[in-house]
Amino acid sequence: MQVNSPNFKAKAEAALTDPQLREALGKTRIMFVNKRAELAAALPEFEHLRDEARDRKNHILAHLDHYLERFDEAVTRAGGKVHWCADAAEARRVILDICRRVEAKSITKGKSMVSEEIGLNEALEAEGYRVLETDLGEYIIQLAHEPPSHIIAPAAHKTQEQVADLFHAAHGGPRKTTVAELVTEARLVLRDEYFRADVGITGGNFLVAETGSTVIVTNEGNGDLTQTLARVHIVTSGIERIVPTLEDVSLFLRILARSATGQETETYTTFSTGPRRPGDPDGPEEFHVVLVDNGRSGMLGGPFQDMLRCIRCGACMNHCPVYGAVGGHAYGWVYPGPMGAVLTPLFVGLDATRDLPNACTLNGRCQSVCPVRIPLPELLRELRHQQHQQGLRPPAERRALATWRFVAERPRLYQFANRVAARALKGLGGDAGRLRSLPFAEGWTAFRDLPAPEGLTFLELWQARHPGKR
Amino acid sequence: MPDSRDTILARIRAGLGRGPLPAAAGAALDARPAHTRIAFDDDLTERFITKLCSRAGSVNRLASLSEVPAAVDAYGEAHGLPPRAAVARPLAGLPWPAGLARHEGPAGKDEILSVTACLAGIAETGSILLASGPDSPTTLNFVPDHHLVVLLASQLVPDFEAAWAHLRALPGGMPRTVNIVSGPSRTGDVGLTLQLGAHGPRSLHVLLVGGDT
Amino acid sequence: MPTDNATRPRVGLFATCLMNLFRPNVGFAAARLLEDAGCSVEVPQAQTCCGQPGYNSGDFEAARALARQLIEVFEGYDYVVGPSGSCMATLRHDYPKLLADDPAWRARAEALAAKSHELLSFLTDVRGVRSVPTRYAGTVTYHDSCSSMRGLGVEAQPRLLLGSVAGLSLAEMADREVCCGFGGSFCVKYPAISGRLAGDKTAAVAASGADTLLGGDLGCLLHLAGKLRRDGQPVKIFHTAEVLAGMADGPGIGGEA
């Protein structure tokens, strides 16, 4: 997928003035935030489960090679095949090869963020394959020719009215308007496609080393229809999604749905273990797992290893004030919000993503809801550190920082500078006690006044009132 | 070109700052952990019903298996459905009315109603555990508008961990497809408004057989 | 409260950059509250900034330099107390991380962190203050800064003390766990986003029906005061310490509406 992150600021500012986007984003709070809070409060074990999940993920990452090898053996035993892919290009190539070999014409897809990450749809379409997204949200944005704006609710930026327009244009017939009518229309359109598909591609929430199973967790049932009715089932998943045993699946299931959609469980949790077996009346004839590294192994052992714990629940973006104000598209690539602001620079490079780690108030709410306790603000700060070290910050910012440091390291100069500033700003503020505009501080005064100082600094006043004291 | 499997494993080990793990470490790593389970002291049946109904599923309690056909019939009538159903093979021996057109195969595109058995009911979340097999087509769980599941009260288990034990006890080991189903299909993708019946069944109805009422 | 000089803990008052420049009254209010709580208060003149602007901008080296400087200035005190969750979280949480790999400084950073406190949590949790003998006529709403609430767990303490102020009633605003959009340099790097978040917050302030907005961090308060004044909203703005110390009789932050 194309990287549009350098346009963050322009896209964010455009998003801020889009009333439909504001309406759509306003609903994520009601849909996700409140329900998560209710469920977290209702489950006494919840905080402990988060600790356990964090610790278990750390254990898994520390032994990732072992569990991946175990998984490969188990998939092979079940008659499936694991394709280890070092990067996105290799993953695309492997999937294209399978599609060619089985002479696929029609491909259905369940929701997979990894397939977005590796640019799969574009690659398949460029080779002439018909690719249809079946997750309703993915289907909506495919009709709109847009990337997802949320990792679990890809069309979170679309209002009901916008969906009605898209469906009307794509399906013809009378324009449907109610949610029930719109969902039914998509259900009927997609139903034929599942039965026609040669290849069904899904993601994988978990890969179980013990059994060689891939697991998807969904609400719509589209992923199940995709993988059950196609001749060939291909799973795309990142290497970090491995878990050792079924017991680990239950651990993560207990935090995933609560964190993601504020439900005790999602509607469907489906384990796929190999292809159709002798006597099976349905199911795919081939089962492939495309295991994608694409930069993940490089995060092990470094300052960003914690990010590999991510279970892609989306709670961080649901609770992020910046995401809530500008939506997911401003982030410019596959993964938006706090987790995306960490992952995108690591996957596509620091240079093209300079805004992402900085467009954050470090308010910590993402970390406070992360089910696996990823210290997202700390990781964003570390990315800022790397930007700073690599000279990727704007010259004006570097000069300002250097000046600030120079002054702050010299207490007398610091006090003098503050005294001058206090007097000057008080003068500019006049009787109102505030400034409506200030040269070189338009960043502040464009959207708010600047309260004026009282005229003397605290340190000088204190010294004047306590002449004997320090 | 080096094999990507070797490349990835080498990168992982480089990141972790070690070589391959000794073979002897394997058994300990593969041991099943005992994670925290969710504590509850409600009666299994009661909790199962409450949780499933909270997720828009419905439950009809029956005294014996022989009542299943009549219950299916009544369900079809109440919903104005045509008298046909996909009935999974394990239930074929029940006294089905002659007027009901039945088949045992996978679901066709226009399948309206299926009746299936299941492996277990999970009280923790009010979920049904289903496994694929020669007598149990997975399409029956997803294609029809109405999915009716026959669950024996004796099949109720408290939590996921007990369900895993069931799966491990199966003669063929882990089935090809295992579905944990918690209510009818749903979506929030249009206007972030919850709507039932997205792609899978619009209705999940459990015929709970036996147990104290 | 012990009043004997020998048992009075010596508190070094950290004059945060924003307080020093914009709102000295908050510093005097903090000093009064600390003295009333039985502490002897000193304000070392050699202090400057805690280094947080550098830390949050990725200039860890600058942040380390200022951390070492601040440790030297303050480590002789029994406690370091400041009227800001944000700065004090830097001392408490970030200094030990910043200096973790520096054998000469690590222990000093940890020792300083252990005795550094945000003002209101120090008063209540360390000094056991449960009430203040002051009066404020008005309905206030309290803004939880993210660094106070999530960073330091300061949430109940200000409410406890405000509850003891005669004449004051507290009207909580909606979404109080949501950031106001200040975010340090974020507010000038991304002013449009920051302005939107400020607008959401000031709408919540207005909806609470309060006539006064209080908070424990001047960054948020200057930002919100600027937004309230720009929009012509008549809400008064004070630092919590000013009200608790009975020093909220002058014009609030940002002047009169």
TrEMBL record, chain A:
<dbReference type="InterPro" id="IPR037171">
    <property type="entry name" value="NagB/RpiA_transferase-like"/>
</dbReference>
<keyword id="KW-0249">Electron transport</keyword>
<dbReference type="InterPro" id="IPR017896">
    <property type="entry name" value="4Fe4S_Fe-S-bd"/>
</dbReference>
<keyword id="KW-0004">4Fe-4S</keyword>
<keyword id="KW-0479">Metal-binding</keyword>
<dbReference type="Pfam" id="PF11870">
    <property type="entry name" value="LutB_C"/>
</dbReference>
<dbReference type="GO" id="GO:0006089">
    <property type="term" value="P:lactate metabolic process"/>
</dbReference>
<keyword id="KW-0411">Iron-sulfur</keyword>
<keyword id="KW-0813">Transport</keyword>
<dbReference type="InterPro" id="IPR024569">
    <property type="entry name" value="LutB_C"/>
</dbReference>
<dbReference type="InterPro" id="IPR003741">
    <property type="entry name" value="LUD_dom"/>
</dbReference>
<keyword id="KW-0408">Iron</keyword>
<dbReference type="Pfam" id="PF13183">
    <property type="entry name" value="Fer4_8"/>
</dbReference>
<dbReference type="GO" id="GO:0051539">
    <property type="term" value="F:4 iron, 4 sulfur cluster binding"/>
</dbReference>
<dbReference type="InterPro" id="IPR009051">
    <property type="entry name" value="Helical_ferredxn"/>
</dbReference>
TrEMBL record, chain B:
<dbReference type="InterPro" id="IPR024185">
    <property type="entry name" value="FTHF_cligase-like_sf"/>
</dbReference>
<dbReference type="InterPro" id="IPR037171">
    <property type="entry name" value="NagB/RpiA_transferase-like"/>
</dbReference>
<feature type="domain" description="LUD">
    <location>
        <begin position="115"/>
        <end position="209"/>
    </location>
</feature>
<dbReference type="InterPro" id="IPR003741">
    <property type="entry name" value="LUD_dom"/>
</dbReference>
<protein>
    <submittedName>
        <fullName>LUD domain-containing protein</fullName>
    </submittedName>
</protein>
<dbReference type="Pfam" id="PF02589">
    <property type="entry name" value="LUD_dom"/>
</dbReference>
TrEMBL record, chain C:
<protein>
    <submittedName>
        <fullName>(Fe-S)-binding protein</fullName>
    </submittedName>
</protein>
<dbReference type="GO" id="GO:0005829">
    <property type="term" value="C:cytosol"/>
</dbReference>
<dbReference type="Pfam" id="PF02754">
    <property type="entry name" value="CCG"/>
</dbReference>
<feature type="domain" description="Cysteine-rich">
    <location>
        <begin position="140"/>
        <end position="224"/>
    </location>
</feature>
<feature type="domain" description="Cysteine-rich">
    <location>
        <begin position="11"/>
        <end position="92"/>
    </location>
</feature>
<dbReference type="InterPro" id="IPR004017">
    <property type="entry name" value="Cys_rich_dom"/>
</dbReference>
<dbReference type="GO" id="GO:0016491">
    <property type="term" value="F:oxidoreductase activity"/>
</dbReference>
